[in-house]
Amino acid sequence: MSVPDISPDRRRFLKDAARMAGGCMLAGGGLAWLARDARALPAQALRPPGALAEAAFLSACIRCGLCVRECPYDTLVLAELGSDGPATGTPYFIARDVPCEMCEDIPCVAACPTGALDPALDDIDDARMGTAVLVDQENCLNFQGLRCDVCYRVCPVIDEAITLDVSHNTRSGHHAMFIPTVHADHCTGCGMCEKSCVLPEAAIKVLPLRMARATPAEHYRKGWEEKDAKGGPVVEGIIDLPDRLPGPGTDNLATPGGFEPAFKLPGTGQ
Ligand code: SF4
Ligand code: SF4
Ligand code: SF4
């Protein structure tokens, strides 16, 4: 069989084209592998104590893993390759797996070389890794009138971050219920309560702040706070009108001589 005569220019062109096609195939394969491997951080992933706000944290963390190495309880793990793109290699923990033991000397923060874990955090009680939320009242044993109390008892900030609030048990009619109630201002997000919940799936969960907390309604003026701050009435000269009492000329329908509505609801006598 005769070999076709190909000019040197055409041979070079064919070689370059073949190289480019190979490169494209490699790049495409790599992208496909990354896409197949892409996974999100778990929704309940919590950042270590002192972590900056998420965007600032992602910029500051150099993925060195020193905080993970220094954690004596193996609480922290590094996000695997492909986890949420820029979050790959960053530290987090899942409360139900291994909660934060709230070390007094906060070795994870001390190990961070960049300030992604804020060195200003010197009291672990001031950490805000997340907020505990009692997400399932139907299954929480205390909501059924039993005395489980486990989440309350394990809390390192007991009686501040979580309290048991007494409420009437309407089911039995004559017992009390002791409702686990989280106070976000004091909850460190350590996860001890979620880890210890006795149910197969915890009724109390620690969620990242962005999921657990709403933003306050800045446009509402809370009169009682302004009054406290001012130490007196916010508006001077308010006329204190007498409270409306039942009697002739009022809209108390039960009072003889009271207001007579033009329209009466059928069958109500009113
Ligand atoms: S405070 Fe202690 S247990 Fe919690 S993440 Fe840091 S090193 Fe680990
Ligand atoms: S996460 Fe749970 S155990 Fe930890 S401080 Fe908050 S309420 Fe207490
Ligand atoms: S440990 Fe679980 S079931 Fe028990 S009171 Fe707390 S949230 Fe409810």
Automatic annotation (TrEMBL):
Keyword 4Fe-4S: yes
Residue span(s) of domain 4Fe-4S ferredoxin-type: 52-81, 90-122, 131-167, 178-209
GO molecular function: 4 iron, 4 sulfur cluster binding; metal ion binding
Cross-referenced InterPro entries: 4Fe4S_Fe-S-bd, 4Fe4S_Fe_S_CS, MauM_NapG, RnfB_subfamily, TAT_signal
Keywords per UniProt: 4Fe-4S, Electron transport, Iron, Iron-sulfur, Metal-binding, Repeat, Transport
Organism domain of life: Bacteria
PROSITE patterns in the cross-refs: 4FE4S_FER_1 (PS00198), 4FE4S_FER_2 (PS51379), TAT (PS51318)
Pfam families tied to this protein: Fer4_7
Region (Disordered): 243-270
Stated name of the protein: Ferredoxin-type protein NapG
Organism of derivation: Dinoroseobacter shibae (strain DSM 16493 / NCIMB 14021 / DFL 12)
